[in-house]
Design goal:
Chain lengths: 671, 283
Amino acid sequence: MILGPLAAGAGLACLKPERLRRLLVASVTLAVAGGALALARLPAPGDLAGFHHHALNLAMSVVEAGMGLYVIYVGSRARRPLIVALMLAQAGLLGWLEWAHGSRLVAAHNLFLDKLSIIMALINGLVGGGICLYALGYMEEYQALHREVADRRPFFFALLFVFLGAMFGVIFANNLLWLFLFWEITTLCSFLLIGYTQTAEARRNALRALEMNLAGGLAFALAIVWLFQRTGSIELQTLITQKSALALAPAALLCFAGLTKSAQMPFSSWLLGAMVAPTPVSALLHSSTMVKAGVYLVLRMAPIITGTKVGLLVALVGAVTFLIGSLAAISASDAKKVLAYSTVANLGLIVVCSGIGTYAAVWAGVLLIIFHAVAKCLLFLCVGAVEHRLHSRDIEAMSGLLLKMPRLAVMMLIGMAGMFLAPFGMLISKWAVLKAVVDAYPALSLFIVFGSAATLFFWVKWMGKLLESVHPQEPERSDLALGESLALYGLSATTFLACLFFPLISSRFIEPYVVGVYGQCVSMSPGNLIIMTIMMVMILLFPLSFLNYGRGVKVMDAYLGGANLHSSVRFLGSANQPQTVTTNNYYLRSFFPEPALARWGVMLGTALLACMLTLAVAGPGAEARTPKETLKPEVQAPPPMVQTGAPDEAQLPANSATRRRPDFGLWNRRL
Amino acid sequence: MNPWLRVSIYFVGAPLLGGLLAGWDRRISARMQSRQGPPLLQPFYDVLKLWQKENIVVRRSQNFYIFFFLLLVIFTGALFFAGSDLLLVIFALTLAAIFFVLGAYKASSPYSFLGAERELLQMMAYEPMVLLTAIGMYMVTRSFYVHEIASHPTLLVLGLPGVFLGFLYTLEIKFRKSPFDLSSSHHAHQELVRGITTEFSGRALALIEIAHWYETVFLLGWVYLFFAASPLLGAAVSVLVFLFIILVDNVFARLTWQTALRSAWLAAAVLGGGNILVLSLLR
């Protein structure tokens, strides 16, 4: 699965003819999606043995060296000394590691497979595959609309598939050196994709993305060296199952790498800058790949950092990001920017879950990853399609879209509902996050409640803009390409299905993973599930009311202070001047000024990250985990959640009095 | 009591009680302004009259949203009185409110558009405190379930004085009364006209009225929850809170949205957040 897309990418780079490309893209996408589905049906996932080949390692080294040289070339040509320095530092570290311990750098298992990697593979295969299909039609329109952009479609599609392949690599790799290679490939691919149009802005943003992700890469390299020095292993599984605090420093470094890639607060500007790329790239970066690689890594670290100060700081970074991202989204009227801020915010929520790292939080985090990927991808693809038809992606321009492009507007509404509305997926996740946060660090819930209020505001006003039609609109003919329709309809259906089958997803995939790591798990209680289902049914009934459309009502003009000029939109203003009605949304720009929010975010994020790294690296390590900190409030099983698969209940203190005595050490980290 | 029985009583009783409260509100307000005021049953007469009116709309689908608004408000209250998860109750309430706002957007008139925007602002203003209230109750009782919160042996308000005050503040916003009648003025001669409900008439307006009755009962039920350990005290405080809201309505002029949002968030952060911080430190 890793090699398939990579090979396809290489093939696509050489293919010029449009029709052949379509065939290849479609077939590889199908193969990848099929592979992911087949993987999900595997009965007992476990370690994948094999793949020890000297030639393979050699090839990887060559690829790595080549990438390093290319990055240095790019950095020096763009006169960005930071890029060169970061790359040289990484290369120096890894080169030294190779030189000093070359023969001992072997992993028993280079690849491995568990339920989390399967979930990620499904997202990557299905959502990512959908984006590739969509891109076929979209890029054709794009090149026709943007004559000034050089047509480099073979290159573009090649990168998409290399990206997908590398993402599979990140998900399945157990050998950290392999993981690092794939990690760097995604960095490089995103750099090239963001810079696709080669305008000055695109280049600048691409370089910024490269810079920030290389900083994460450096932390990654440091983590590998550190881990090897301390434990003599370069395997992810060894790191995760390390009980000692030895693993804390490498884990913190890996978290740092994950935070850069998932665009958390000091680094979120690269993801916002990535909007300049064609929409499929944004969709890919925002939903299924790249940023999800970041949160995937942080989520993997959750069992190590749970209950430590490092974990608390990671959670704080996520909480600050969630709040600031949500507030900043209010003031944005560019649809893609709103989506970008919302991505940053939701990733923040996932990071909060990872930082808390209790079993309930991790359960919520995985849920968030799934639902966010689907709904966000749908929204990006809708915005892309709408942008091509309206020649604008300003939300104000989408006024009355429900009448103008009913199908796209309905799909967009579904996507938005999926992002924040009960009973859709993201809300189930937010419910779980709130519970997990209140159990672990109640103060953090402050960030979440204010952030969710902001979320509500910016989504609903966008929804309202699609619905309202102050000025009459004529419906336009739908002319979506086949790939586009497939992706859009598929994702809309998935948004619904993922909510309907959420209990199944939870019990088949998420719970086994969480139980595997923590020995226990939570889920939604049956009563609450029924309530959610009833709400879902109500929402589904809503379209039925349109059967009654226009019956028994008398249509009149809107009230315009009694001065209507025979219409809902023209009225007699002062001095008897005819005026036309215009309505615009609130953006509260003086209340939530974007630059100031960004500044705060960067300052807070940098301070928190600096604290985290100092604590992890300079801190005495083992002492960082005092018994007091391992005291987790989830001792007392939160009643609203159902306990499943708790093998040894005896270890759970029976009453709340025990909670005050922090003398039961590491009980909650049964691994 | 059986939860189904409670829900049934709520389903039938809430509109009656809510309507009476609305009539009482109008009488007390009138007395505060040295007027006689309408009869106690006036809200019921109003709704009956609205029901017989012609169905006039600007956009043909606008009333569907209102129907679902009512449905979800009833559902929210039913969840609450059945003793469900408080967070789910809040989410259902939000969903209901969103249907109301979307209906106003759909009506596509400048006044209802403005009302919808402002209603959203108000939702943004009260949402944090409402969630913090649920969290505060959880921290005291270790449960999000209303039936378990209600059967907690001690008065919740003793542990949650800040949260209670903050919740009172949000109630002012939630009832859309002065000083927070930003989205829907009760006095249609002002610049806002009727705001969010400008374009709703006849049966749709009647449904909105009924939804407000249900909502009033549900919200006062939540106030009661703070004093659930002592039912009589709880009922008395609920009535007092209702009177207090009427008093505030008559005493204050409308605030700007900036002040409303800022003060509501400040109240949520200081009163609610502070209370929760103290609780988490005491734990």
